[in-house]
Amino acid sequence: MTDTIFVTGLSIHARHGVMDHETEVGQRFVIDLELYTDLSEPARTDRLADTVSYAEVVSTTTAAFKNTNYKLLEGAAGAVADAILSHFPRIRAVKITVHKPHAPIAAIFDDVGIMLTRSRHP
Fold it and tell me: Where is the Dihydroneopterin aldolase/epimerase domain (predicted)?
């Protein structure tokens, strides 16, 4: 059985990108997370100690995303996945979507970004 904890719309200002102005000024990124785990124990006990704290997930994600300036979103998202899997042993897999709504593209668009999934057991 796999249950899901999710965080959507986490807005973080960071300095990722290929262009010089992206690393100098930075921009807003939006992150969505899906954390796959078994929630049967916390559903039974109703204890925070038996699950994963949303606040800790947000803190871990923010630190990993901002810790290094990456040229590619793939690198930044990979750092978040690694941090979550190493910090939260209850999480079996994580799906991360990183939106870059102000990417320097000469076009009119709503959103661009990447989505990656990582697990403990490939």
Answer: 5-118
